[in-house]
Amino acid sequence: MKMPGPDHPITITPAGRRWRARYQGHVIADSGDALVLQEASYPPVVYFPREDVSMAFLTHTVHATHCPYKGDASYYTLQMDGHFAENAIWSYEEPYPAMAEIAGRLAFYTNKVEVYSPDDAEAAQEAVDAPPVQAAPSVDDIVLHTDSGSGASQREHWPPNVSMPRADDGAR
After folding, report:
1. Left, alpha or beta for 16 (phi > 0: left; psi -120 to 50: alpha)?
2. Which of 112, 105, 130 has its CA nearest to residue 27?
3. pTM of the predicted model as reported, rounded to 2 decimal places
4. Cα–Cα distance between 112 and 118 in angstroms, integer?
5. For the chain: N or C, fewer Cβ within 10 A?
6. What's the rounded Cα separation, in Å, for the pair 156 and 145?
7. Cα separation of 33 and 41, whole Å?
8. In degrees, to the nearest 5, what angle opens at C-alpha 85 toward C-alphas 127 and 24?
9. pLDDT tens digits for range 37-60
10. Measured on CA atoms in the order 4, 7, 8, 13, is the torsion positive or negative?
């Protein structure tokens, strides 16, 4: 374990404004309680409280890394609308004592997930225009709605998501 110091400074400060994370047009994290970690000359990293992240879209992976200043990081893969961002999110569940403030919080790789402040007018408008996030059915739920081999669904069909096809949808 190494301690931050003049040769490798690390600061953790309250973000001071709202931060969001967006993936595939969906806001998956939104927090007014984010922290910003600034480590040496690296770009700042926003850490979100777990309760402000849509955890239903995240799957814990076996990938792990070690930082001599922060400790062991665990990773999550993000799945949404058939798209995957493998190991796009990390968390220090039990960081070293000097980094205790980030314990259990989540951070996103910005080359995979957009992290922004809605104070940025352009990003805020894009978030407003994005479709709402809907939880995807679980794999078990999907399997139970498929053919069991008898030609019939194993469960009652889901309700339709439209009342009638539109005449202008190209069907003839």
Report:
1. left
2. 130
3. 0.70
4. 18
5. C
6. 7
7. 24
8. 25
9. 999 999 999 999 999 999 999 999
10. positive
On whether the CB atoms of residues 53 and 45 are closer than 8 A, the answer is no
List phi, psi (to 5°) of 129.
-75, -15
- Per DSSP, the three-state class of 50 is helix
Q: For 55-98, what is each residue's pLDDT tens digit?
A: 999 999 999 999 999 999 999 999 998 899 999 999 999 999 99
Q: Tell me how far apart the alpha carbons of residues 28 and 84 are, in angstroms, rounded to a whole number.
A: 14
Confidence of residue 172 (pLDDT cuts 50, 70, 90): very low
Distances (CA, A) of 2 to 5, 96, 102, 119, 151: 9, 9, 17, 36, 63
16: Cα separation from own chain's centroid: 21
What are the tokens at 138? 């679980």
The residues pairing with 47 across neighbouring beta strands, listed in sequence order, are 35
- In total, the chain counts a number of residues equal to 172
User: Which residue bears the tokens 């951070």?
Assistant: 107
Burial of 7 (0-12, 13-18, 19+ CB in 10 A): exposed
* Structure token digits, residue 149: 């081999």
